[in-house]
Specification:
Helix content is 45%, strand content 20%. It has a 7-stranded mixed beta sheet with strand order 1-2-3-4-5-7-6. Helix 7 links the parallel strand 4 and strand 5.
Protein backbone atom coordinates (compact mmCIF):
# COMPACT_ATOMS: atom_id res chain seq x y z
CA UNK A 1 0.00 0.00 0.00
CA UNK A 2 1.40 3.39 -1.01
CA UNK A 3 1.71 6.03 1.69
CA UNK A 4 0.05 9.42 1.27
CA UNK A 5 2.25 11.99 -0.49
CA UNK A 6 4.00 14.66 1.54
CA UNK A 7 2.01 17.57 0.16
CA UNK A 8 4.20 20.20 1.83
CA UNK A 9 7.18 18.74 0.02
CA UNK A 10 5.28 18.67 -3.26
CA UNK A 11 3.96 22.22 -2.89
CA UNK A 12 7.49 23.43 -2.10
CA UNK A 13 8.77 21.75 -5.28
CA UNK A 14 6.02 23.29 -7.43
CA UNK A 15 6.85 26.72 -6.04
CA UNK A 16 10.54 26.12 -6.67
CA UNK A 17 9.86 25.27 -10.31
CA UNK A 18 7.71 28.41 -10.57
CA UNK A 19 10.80 30.32 -9.47
CA UNK A 20 12.73 28.69 -12.32
CA UNK A 21 10.15 30.05 -14.79
CA UNK A 22 10.41 33.56 -13.37
CA UNK A 23 14.18 33.36 -13.75
CA UNK A 24 13.73 32.47 -17.42
CA UNK A 25 11.46 35.47 -17.89
CA UNK A 26 13.92 37.76 -16.06
CA UNK A 27 12.23 41.03 -15.08
CA UNK A 28 9.23 40.92 -17.47
CA UNK A 29 6.70 39.77 -14.85
CA UNK A 30 3.90 38.88 -17.30
CA UNK A 31 0.20 39.09 -16.55
CA UNK A 32 -1.58 35.88 -15.44
CA UNK A 33 -5.17 35.46 -16.64
CA UNK A 34 -5.53 31.75 -15.95
CA UNK A 35 -4.19 29.01 -13.68
CA UNK A 36 -4.98 25.35 -14.37
CA UNK A 37 -4.44 22.54 -11.87
CA UNK A 38 -4.58 19.26 -13.77
CA UNK A 39 -2.96 15.92 -14.36
CA UNK A 40 -4.22 14.17 -11.21
CA UNK A 41 -3.39 17.03 -8.82
CA UNK A 42 -6.75 16.99 -6.99
CA UNK A 43 -6.10 13.52 -5.59
CA UNK A 44 -2.71 14.63 -4.23
CA UNK A 45 -3.20 18.10 -2.79
CA UNK A 46 -5.45 19.70 -0.19
CA UNK A 47 -7.14 23.06 -0.44
CA UNK A 48 -4.57 24.47 1.97
CA UNK A 49 -1.61 23.39 -0.17
CA UNK A 50 -3.34 24.58 -3.33
CA UNK A 51 -3.83 27.96 -1.70
CA UNK A 52 -0.08 28.13 -1.00
CA UNK A 53 0.66 27.61 -4.68
CA UNK A 54 -1.84 30.30 -5.71
CA UNK A 55 -0.28 32.73 -3.23
CA UNK A 56 3.15 31.96 -4.69
CA UNK A 57 1.88 32.68 -8.21
CA UNK A 58 0.39 35.98 -7.07
CA UNK A 59 3.70 36.95 -5.47
CA UNK A 60 5.64 36.31 -8.70
CA UNK A 61 3.30 37.51 -11.46
CA UNK A 62 0.53 40.05 -11.98
CA UNK A 63 -2.64 38.00 -11.52
CA UNK A 64 -5.70 39.75 -12.95
CA UNK A 65 -8.66 40.24 -10.58
CA UNK A 66 -10.91 38.09 -12.77
CA UNK A 67 -8.35 35.33 -13.40
CA UNK A 68 -9.78 31.92 -14.18
CA UNK A 69 -8.57 29.34 -11.61
CA UNK A 70 -9.49 25.86 -12.86
CA UNK A 71 -9.19 22.56 -11.03
CA UNK A 72 -9.35 19.29 -12.97
CA UNK A 73 -11.14 16.74 -10.79
CA UNK A 74 -12.19 13.11 -10.88
CA UNK A 75 -15.80 12.31 -9.92
CA UNK A 76 -14.99 9.89 -7.08
CA UNK A 77 -16.27 10.58 -3.57
CA UNK A 78 -12.80 11.34 -2.17
CA UNK A 79 -12.38 14.33 -4.42
CA UNK A 80 -15.98 15.46 -3.99
CA UNK A 81 -15.35 15.75 -0.23
CA UNK A 82 -12.67 18.37 -0.95
CA UNK A 83 -14.65 20.55 -3.35
CA UNK A 84 -15.54 23.21 -0.75
CA UNK A 85 -11.90 23.45 0.38
CA UNK A 86 -10.83 24.04 -3.21
CA UNK A 87 -13.42 26.77 -3.62
CA UNK A 88 -12.24 28.43 -0.39
CA UNK A 89 -8.67 28.32 -1.73
CA UNK A 90 -9.68 30.39 -4.76
CA UNK A 91 -10.74 27.88 -7.41
CA UNK A 92 -13.58 29.41 -9.45
CA UNK A 93 -13.92 26.79 -12.18
CA UNK A 94 -13.91 22.99 -12.04
CA UNK A 95 -13.48 20.55 -14.92
CA UNK A 96 -14.69 17.03 -14.10
CA UNK A 97 -13.44 13.94 -15.92
CA UNK A 98 -16.81 12.21 -16.31
CA UNK A 99 -16.13 10.56 -19.72
CA UNK A 100 -19.43 8.65 -19.74
CA UNK A 101 -22.77 8.46 -17.98
CA UNK A 102 -22.99 4.71 -18.59
CA UNK A 103 -21.41 2.18 -16.20
CA UNK A 104 -20.45 -0.39 -18.83
CA UNK A 105 -18.76 2.31 -20.91
CA UNK A 106 -16.87 3.59 -17.87
CA UNK A 107 -15.58 0.08 -17.25
CA UNK A 108 -14.48 -0.19 -20.90
CA UNK A 109 -12.69 3.17 -20.63
CA UNK A 110 -10.84 2.00 -17.51
CA UNK A 111 -12.46 4.53 -15.19
CA UNK A 112 -12.82 3.72 -11.49
CA UNK A 113 -15.88 5.86 -10.77
CA UNK A 114 -19.50 4.91 -11.42
CA UNK A 115 -22.09 6.79 -13.44
CA UNK A 116 -23.91 7.69 -10.22
CA UNK A 117 -20.70 9.15 -8.74
CA UNK A 118 -20.21 11.17 -11.91
CA UNK A 119 -23.72 12.57 -11.75
CA UNK A 120 -23.36 13.42 -8.06
CA UNK A 121 -20.03 15.17 -8.70
CA UNK A 122 -21.54 17.36 -11.42
CA UNK A 123 -24.56 18.24 -9.26
CA UNK A 124 -22.37 19.10 -6.27
CA UNK A 125 -19.95 21.16 -8.32
CA UNK A 126 -22.73 23.35 -9.72
CA UNK A 127 -23.65 24.27 -6.15
CA UNK A 128 -20.09 25.06 -5.05
CA UNK A 129 -18.32 26.56 -8.08
CA UNK A 130 -19.45 29.50 -10.23
CA UNK A 131 -18.18 27.83 -13.41
CA UNK A 132 -18.39 24.12 -14.22
CA UNK A 133 -17.36 21.89 -17.12
CA UNK A 134 -17.21 18.16 -17.64
CA UNK A 135 -16.13 15.87 -20.45
CA UNK A 136 -17.63 12.93 -22.31
CA UNK A 137 -16.19 10.54 -24.85
CA UNK A 138 -18.37 9.35 -27.73
CA UNK A 139 -18.02 7.15 -30.84
CA UNK A 140 -17.42 4.28 -28.46
CA UNK A 141 -17.65 0.65 -29.66
CA UNK A 142 -21.22 -0.36 -30.59
CA UNK A 143 -22.56 3.10 -29.69
CA UNK A 144 -25.54 4.11 -31.81
CA UNK A 145 -26.77 7.56 -32.77
CA UNK A 146 -29.81 7.14 -30.51
CA UNK A 147 -27.71 6.09 -27.52
CA UNK A 148 -25.42 9.09 -27.90
CA UNK A 149 -28.39 11.42 -28.43
CA UNK A 150 -29.86 10.22 -25.12
CA UNK A 151 -26.55 10.45 -23.23
CA UNK A 152 -25.83 13.91 -24.57
CA UNK A 153 -29.35 15.01 -23.64
CA UNK A 154 -28.75 13.77 -20.09
CA UNK A 155 -25.45 15.67 -19.97
CA UNK A 156 -27.09 18.90 -21.11
CA UNK A 157 -29.81 18.54 -18.47
CA UNK A 158 -27.29 19.42 -15.76
CA UNK A 159 -27.21 22.95 -17.14
CA UNK A 160 -23.44 23.45 -17.00
CA UNK A 161 -21.99 26.28 -19.07
CA UNK A 162 -19.29 24.19 -20.76
CA UNK A 163 -18.92 20.67 -22.18
CA UNK A 164 -15.88 18.97 -23.70
CA UNK A 165 -17.01 16.23 -26.10
CA UNK A 166 -14.28 14.07 -27.60
CA UNK A 167 -14.53 11.34 -30.20
CA UNK A 168 -12.76 8.16 -29.11
CA UNK A 169 -9.55 7.75 -31.10
CA UNK A 170 -7.22 4.76 -31.18
CA UNK A 171 -3.66 5.86 -30.44
CA UNK A 172 -0.64 3.72 -31.29
CA UNK A 173 1.04 2.11 -28.31
CA UNK A 174 -2.18 1.83 -26.28
CA UNK A 175 -4.10 -1.26 -25.20
CA UNK A 176 -6.99 -0.06 -27.38
CA UNK A 177 -4.69 -0.06 -30.43
CA UNK A 178 -3.59 -3.63 -29.73
CA UNK A 179 -7.18 -4.81 -29.34
CA UNK A 180 -8.17 -2.96 -32.51
CA UNK A 181 -5.42 -4.67 -34.53
CA UNK A 182 -6.55 -8.03 -33.16
CA UNK A 183 -10.09 -7.33 -34.29
CA UNK A 184 -11.36 -7.37 -30.70
CA UNK A 185 -12.29 -3.69 -30.64
CA UNK A 186 -14.38 -2.02 -33.31
CA UNK A 187 -15.20 1.66 -33.12
CA UNK A 188 -17.83 3.27 -35.39
CA UNK A 189 -16.85 3.47 -39.05
CA UNK A 190 -16.01 6.82 -40.63
CA UNK A 191 -19.54 7.51 -41.86
CA UNK A 192 -21.08 6.87 -38.44
CA UNK A 193 -18.32 8.90 -36.74
CA UNK A 194 -19.16 11.87 -38.98
CA UNK A 195 -22.87 11.46 -38.24
CA UNK A 196 -22.12 11.40 -34.50
CA UNK A 197 -20.00 14.54 -34.80
CA UNK A 198 -22.60 16.42 -36.82
CA UNK A 199 -25.41 15.40 -34.46
CA UNK A 200 -23.31 16.60 -31.52
CA UNK A 201 -22.88 20.03 -33.12
CA UNK A 202 -26.59 20.31 -33.91
CA UNK A 203 -27.81 19.28 -30.44
CA UNK A 204 -25.34 21.48 -28.55
CA UNK A 205 -26.02 24.47 -30.82
CA UNK A 206 -29.73 24.06 -30.17
CA UNK A 207 -29.10 23.93 -26.42
CA UNK A 208 -27.14 27.20 -26.48
CA UNK A 209 -23.69 25.61 -26.23
CA UNK A 210 -22.20 26.02 -29.71
CA UNK A 211 -18.75 24.65 -30.46
CA UNK A 212 -16.14 27.38 -30.05
CA UNK A 213 -13.46 24.74 -30.74
CA UNK A 214 -13.69 21.36 -32.46
CA UNK A 215 -14.45 19.43 -29.26
CA UNK A 216 -15.46 22.17 -26.83
CA UNK A 217 -18.87 23.75 -26.40
CA UNK A 218 -19.86 26.69 -24.23
CA UNK A 219 -22.41 29.37 -23.63
CA UNK A 220 -21.27 32.77 -24.88
CA UNK A 221 -18.65 34.14 -22.49
CA UNK A 222 -18.10 30.78 -20.77
CA UNK A 223 -15.31 29.52 -23.02
CA UNK A 224 -12.36 28.02 -21.10
CA UNK A 225 -9.88 30.87 -20.99
CA UNK A 226 -6.96 28.58 -20.24
CA UNK A 227 -7.57 26.44 -23.30
CA UNK A 228 -8.05 29.54 -25.41
CA UNK A 229 -4.46 30.46 -24.53
CA UNK A 230 -3.31 27.22 -26.18
CA UNK A 231 -5.44 27.59 -29.27
CA UNK A 232 -4.59 31.26 -29.74
CA UNK A 233 -0.93 30.23 -29.41
CA UNK A 234 -0.21 32.59 -26.54
CA UNK A 235 2.37 32.03 -23.79
CA UNK A 236 1.76 29.58 -20.96
CA UNK A 237 4.09 28.15 -18.32
CA UNK A 238 3.95 24.47 -17.39
CA UNK A 239 5.30 23.21 -14.07
CA UNK A 240 4.93 19.88 -12.31
CA UNK A 241 5.37 16.29 -13.57
CA UNK A 242 4.93 16.00 -17.34
CA UNK A 243 3.85 19.62 -17.80
CA UNK A 244 4.48 21.33 -21.15
CA UNK A 245 4.77 25.05 -21.77
CA UNK A 246 5.33 27.59 -24.51
CA UNK A 247 7.17 30.79 -23.63
CA UNK A 248 8.47 33.75 -25.61
CA UNK A 249 12.01 34.27 -24.30
CA UNK A 250 14.01 37.13 -25.80
CA UNK A 251 11.68 37.08 -28.78
CA UNK A 252 12.19 33.35 -29.39
CA UNK A 253 9.36 30.82 -29.11
CA UNK A 254 10.56 28.23 -26.61
CA UNK A 255 9.02 24.86 -25.73
CA UNK A 256 9.44 23.64 -22.15
CA UNK A 257 8.84 20.14 -20.84
CA UNK A 258 9.04 18.97 -17.23
CA UNK A 259 10.21 15.53 -16.16
CA UNK A 260 7.30 13.13 -16.66
CA UNK A 261 7.68 10.64 -13.77
CA UNK A 262 6.44 12.20 -10.50
CA UNK A 263 9.13 10.86 -8.17
CA UNK A 264 11.89 11.66 -10.66
CA UNK A 265 10.45 15.14 -11.11
CA UNK A 266 10.43 15.71 -7.36
CA UNK A 267 14.04 14.58 -6.89
CA UNK A 268 15.26 16.67 -9.81
CA UNK A 269 13.54 19.86 -8.64
CA UNK A 270 14.83 19.40 -5.09
CA UNK A 271 18.41 18.81 -6.22
CA UNK A 272 18.63 21.10 -9.27
CA UNK A 273 15.89 23.68 -8.76
CA UNK A 274 13.96 22.69 -11.89
CA UNK A 275 13.23 19.72 -14.13
CA UNK A 276 12.44 21.84 -17.18
CA UNK A 277 13.99 20.89 -20.50
CA UNK A 278 13.91 23.66 -23.11
CA UNK A 279 13.98 23.69 -26.88
CA UNK A 280 13.78 26.58 -29.31
CA UNK A 281 10.88 26.22 -31.74
CA UNK A 282 11.96 26.91 -35.31
CA UNK A 283 10.10 29.80 -36.93
CA UNK A 284 8.50 27.54 -39.54
CA UNK A 285 7.41 25.02 -36.90
CA UNK A 286 5.97 27.75 -34.68
CA UNK A 287 3.99 29.15 -37.62
CA UNK A 288 2.56 25.71 -38.39
CA UNK A 289 1.67 25.09 -34.72
CA UNK A 290 -0.10 28.45 -34.58
CA UNK A 291 -2.02 27.68 -37.77
CA UNK A 292 -3.12 24.26 -36.50
CA UNK A 293 -4.23 25.61 -33.14
CA UNK A 294 -6.08 28.68 -34.42
CA UNK A 295 -8.03 26.78 -37.07
CA UNK A 296 -9.48 24.53 -34.37
CA UNK A 297 -11.37 27.58 -33.16
CA UNK A 298 -14.61 28.88 -34.59
CA UNK A 299 -13.11 32.40 -34.46
CA UNK A 300 -10.26 31.22 -36.70
CA UNK A 301 -7.02 32.99 -37.50
CA UNK A 302 -6.23 36.72 -37.72
CA UNK A 303 -4.30 36.59 -41.00
CA UNK A 304 -2.49 39.92 -40.69
CA UNK A 305 -1.34 39.27 -37.12
CA UNK A 306 -0.20 35.75 -38.03
CA UNK A 307 1.80 36.90 -41.04
CA UNK A 308 3.42 39.75 -39.10
CA UNK A 309 4.40 37.49 -36.20
CA UNK A 310 5.90 34.65 -38.23
CA UNK A 311 6.94 36.46 -41.41
CA UNK A 312 4.93 33.82 -43.26
CA UNK A 313 2.68 34.85 -46.14
CA UNK A 314 -0.22 32.48 -46.73
CA UNK A 315 -0.83 31.58 -50.36
CA UNK A 316 -3.89 33.35 -51.77
CA UNK A 317 -4.18 30.63 -54.40
CA UNK A 318 -4.34 27.88 -51.76
CA UNK A 319 -6.83 29.89 -49.71
CA UNK A 320 -9.00 30.33 -52.81
CA UNK A 321 -8.87 26.61 -53.61
CA UNK A 322 -9.83 25.63 -50.07
CA UNK A 323 -12.68 28.15 -50.12
CA UNK A 324 -13.94 26.73 -53.39
CA UNK A 325 -13.90 23.23 -51.89
CA UNK A 326 -15.96 24.41 -48.92
CA UNK A 327 -13.18 23.86 -46.37
CA UNK A 328 -12.60 27.43 -45.17
CA UNK A 329 -14.06 30.92 -45.17
CA UNK A 330 -12.04 34.12 -45.39
CA UNK A 331 -13.86 37.26 -44.32
CA UNK A 332 -12.84 40.49 -42.56
CA UNK A 333 -9.25 39.36 -42.38
CA UNK A 334 -10.01 36.12 -40.55
CA UNK A 335 -9.43 32.61 -41.87
CA UNK A 336 -11.89 30.06 -40.47
CA UNK A 337 -12.54 26.40 -41.11
CA UNK A 338 -16.05 25.32 -42.03
CA UNK A 339 -17.67 22.35 -40.25
CA UNK A 340 -16.40 20.18 -43.13
CA UNK A 341 -12.94 21.74 -42.89
CA UNK A 342 -12.74 21.02 -39.17
CA UNK A 343 -13.35 17.35 -39.88
CA UNK A 344 -10.33 17.41 -42.22
CA UNK A 345 -8.24 19.92 -40.28
CA UNK A 346 -4.87 18.23 -40.73
CA UNK A 347 -5.33 18.24 -44.50
CA UNK A 348 -6.35 21.91 -44.48
CA UNK A 349 -3.29 22.91 -42.44
CA UNK A 350 -0.97 20.81 -44.62
CA UNK A 351 -2.30 22.58 -47.72
CA UNK A 352 -1.95 26.07 -46.23
CA UNK A 353 1.51 25.40 -44.82
CA UNK A 354 2.91 23.69 -47.92
Amino acid sequence: MRSSPDETRWANAIIRELDAVTELQKSTRPKVVSVFFGGGTPSLISGKALSRVLDAIAARWRVTPDAEITLEANPNSVEQSRFRDYRAAGVNRVSIGVQSLDDSSLKFLGRLHSADEAKEAVKLSTVIFPRVSFDLIYARPKQTLLEWQQELGAALSFGTEHLSLYQLTIEKGTAFHTLSRQGKLKIPNEDLAVDLFEMTQEICEGAGLPAYEISNHAREGAEARHNLLYWRYEDYAGVGPGAHGRLSLNGIRTATCAERLPESWLRKVETEGSSLAMEKVALQDAAREHLLMALRLREGLDIAAYQAQWRDTLSQERIAALRENGMITCEDGRLCTTPRGRLLLNSVVAELAA
